[in-house]
Every structure is written in structure tokens, then in C-alpha cells.
Amino acid sequence: MISNIIFDCDGVLIDSEILSFAVDEKLLPNYGVTITASDLAREFGGVTYGEMVAALNERFGTEIDPKRYQERCEAELSRTFETELRAIPGMRDLLTRLTVPIALASGSDLARLDQCLALTGLVDFFEGRIFSAEQVACGKPAPDVFLFAAAQSGWQAEQCLVIEDSPSGIIAARAAGMRSVGFLGGAHRSLEDYGILRDAGAEYVAGNSDDLHNCLRDFGLLGPSRH
Length: 227
Fold this sequence. Notes:
Blueprint lengths: L3 E4 L9 H11 L9 H8 L4 H12 L5 H19 L6 H7 L4 E5 L3 H11 L9 E3 L11 H10 L6 E5 L2 H9 L3 E5 L10 H7 L3 E3 L2 H10 L9
Parallel strand pairs: 1-2, 1-4, 2-3, 4-5, 5-6
């Protein structure tokens, strides 16, 4: 029985991934790496900067310093977010209607999460239950951040449902012993990505917020609309 929901943040609650990977696509050629934002999203959605940079260094034979690269990206993203960041349409209503406790578990660091949730007006839904991969040993696809979120919230893993937009997040949820729903509502995703989330182990894949509403209603996790 599902009695708690753990949300990913980027690409699920907020439409940040399209902005983030656009910055990567812009900056990486300066380091000898040419790759599109869509390819980055498909391959590295949900993982930490360090893990992405390590994979790119191995593939392209580069020596990008992950800490310095992250600092450069975060500085540019912070300016972009101030004017362009939006919540995923329909998410505020969904969060308002949920009838079970929720938490957030993300690969982003806590400072970025605080900024993004404040800018999009979603922070109050998760007060006291915001968790980051920087708090655990390994980021997604390892299960650490989901297990940490559950433990800190006093929840049993098998009673948690994870909402994720990336294969690495779905794999992490499965490794944590949690059920999962894939989400394609972010601007960086398309219905063509349905298969990668199903193949990763998603029990259901929602194409947009309306689909996610219907899915969670079928699970018995939504109350009536308050509008």
C-alpha cells in the first residue's frame, strides 16, 4: 500500500532541466565537448554534475574539473532561473490535492533547491522534507537519496511511490525497493522518451500533469480539487 510520495524536483515539479542542459550545451564546447541538450537530458537527467562530468571526461578524453564546472554552470543558471524558471503546469494543483505525506529527493544541491522552490512558489509543500544527493554517499542511480528521504521522514521504503523524469531516478527508486511513476511533462522530454522510463522500471509513465493526476487518482492518493 502506498502511503507516501517522494518527488524528484528538476523536470517533475519545475521546468528546469531544459534550462540546465541548454547551459551545458553552451558551455561544454569551451572544454572540448560537443553534445546537444537533448542528448544530455536523455543520458544524464537526474545525475549529479560530478557523475556527468566524469562520464564526459572518459568519453571525450577531456579533463574538466567537476567542481569548477558546476560553479560556472550554477552561476549562469541562477541568473537564468530568476527570469525564466517556471513550475510544471498543473503541479501546484496536484500538490494541493494529495492526501498522503510527501517529500522531495533530488540530485541538485540544497541551495539550488531552495532557490528553485522559492521562485516557483512550491517550497511550502515540502518544508522539512527536502533532500539532496549532496547529503548522501552516491547520487542516482544509486538508491541513497531516496532511502535517506524515507528514513528521515520515518517512512518504510516499500510504502513509497517515486515520481521521476529520468531513467537514473527510476533505477534508483527500484533499487530502493520503491514503486515509481515516470513523468514526461518537462519541456526537455517528449513522448518518444516513454520507452526509456518503462525500460528503467517505471510502473506507469505519465505524459503530462493531467496523466499524472489520473494516475495518482487511480492509486487513491488524490482528493477533490480545491478550485
